[in-house]
Amino acid sequence: MSWIVNKDEKGFAEIRKKAKSVVAGMEFPGLKDEDWKYTRLAKISKKSFTVENTKKSNALSDKFYPGAKVRFVFENGFFRQDLSHGSSNYVKRVDELTEAQLTAALEKTGYVKSGIVSSYNDAFFTDGVCIDIPAKTKIEDVIEVVFISNGNGHASVVKNIILAQEESNAEVIFNFIADGANENLVNNVFHAAVHPNAKLTVYKIQDEVSGASHFSSENIFQHNNSVFEIHTITLNGDLVRNDLNIKVNGTDCHTHLGGVFIATGKMHVDNHTIVDHQMPNCTSDEIYKGIANHNSTGVFNGKIFVRRDAQKINAYQNSANILLSDDASIYAKPELEIYADDVKCSHGTTTGCIDEAALFYLRARGIGGESARKLLVHAFASDVIEKISNEPVQEWILSKLDHKLTEL
Amino acid sequence: MKSVAKINYMLEIKNLHAKIEDKEILKGINLTVKAGEVHAIMGPNGSGKSTLSSVLAGREDYEVTGGQVSFNGKDLLDMAPEDRAREGVFLAFQYPVEIPGVSNINFLKTAINEIRTYNGKENITAKDFMALVKEKSALVELDPKLAQRAVNHGFSGGEKKRNEIFQMAMLEPKLAILDETDSGLDIDALRIVANGVNKLKSKDNATIVITHYQRLLDYIVPDFVHVLYNGKIVKSGGKELALELEEKGYDWIKNELQEA
Hints:
The complex is a heterodimer of chains A (408) and B (260). Chain A is α/β, with parallel strands linked by helices and 408 residues long.
């Protein structure tokens, strides 16, 4: 029996056919595979998931970004016109594209990576957004794309594309939420190209429920003078794996990767990132903060490549983690591969417990142990969130974070 | 039988013993403090001064092995550190802790509201709180901008100590314990800090000043001076005792004890 079955398959015959033959001959990576060393797939590989147009969810307005004027909502990978609102000339749905148009859009992102997540995605995807921001266009309002996971045993397989044309500027929220879902699978593949002098900012919220597994493969291609920012906030989900690959193929670019996860219960959150500096005069900074409580596990594997021609690179990477329980684990692996000689790179990783001296100080001022702990955890995570320059989005994310902190 | 009027002590320490790891530091402290009084506890390094303040504030590194401490009639040692603070005990730390990411304002507002909730009062309004910040930061000549910054983060030594007194002013404790508040302060900062403490003094609150040197006591004049040596209070007297100590040094006490 296949891992994923698509009951409502439509279109894209060539892409699917090719991918299905790849998937058929594919084995799930095991512990011997370095990229999957700390994230075991044995359990999930034995389950099976159905792609199905369910249309069950009501509006989950408390989980949507309140400031979104344009919102596209998908449930289990299928578009929910009734829950969406606003429209934009620049946002199309993948489902509306012809196979030739989709292939062309993907080719324009300049970066196609094959792996288990993207192969399954090609074979079973249903929909997603294809955002093409025209040159010299600044989109003032954040575009929100919501993916609701709902029911039991469903797979939401979505494909998203953003083409940020020259001198454009846009911000997009990918908001992954759940509606009482259980034992579901989310497979999300995202491709983006950031053209010369363009700026693209992505906020990714993962707030699914326990029982849900989420696999993302995100591939970004940066051209000259472009800026790409991504903020990945993981608050829920049983097994979460994010593969973020950024190819910086232009000069004078800036790349920012911010990440926060709060793992409770038996959550397993794995962030794999690659920043590949191929051209000179670029800066990148990456900061991931993890909080692991109960029996949860956090994995961070951040790789920075500085290729031979990429001189004058200033790359910074930091992963800091707090363990709140004796049974929680963190595996952090920063990696630098530098082939150029005139570069400035630094990386660091720390994992520790909550600062007892700070905790006592707060308690000695009358703040209860529990709220003191939350205040410190909030402070630990908030400096990543504070890097978000869009204040309403920053506040929204902070409120989600604080809500999650009540579970600690 | 003659009836004895019960004296209402704010703080009553009886035969207090405490250790850290296996080392006994406090070896039977007796001390009583009434509302309106200022006590100074002096002593050489290692005599147990900071241990005493830590034990009173509830630091868990120390284990109380004997004795009692009552605060306004309640068993202080039985309380969590936060409840001691909510009952009105305030420790000005010798080494204030830097807490990046937590703003002074947010921290103090949380503290004030938790104390108010404990005492059955409603939360302070934002307006009243900001007025209080303005008033109290002026009292210790603390730049109001520092109040917006993260707790003690990147503060100079003097700013940290002033911030302690600012917090004390905001929380209005019944008993303030100043643990070596004078250490690391230049004369101007010392004057400002002492001035703040003096302005906060009332007939309803009490202060314990813990110090190695006499100089702080030029500014905060104590009603009683106690000498702590080797885990015990070995001598008590009026403010003149501090001057005598300054003049003769701690060896005077040591020699006196050896002779006895």
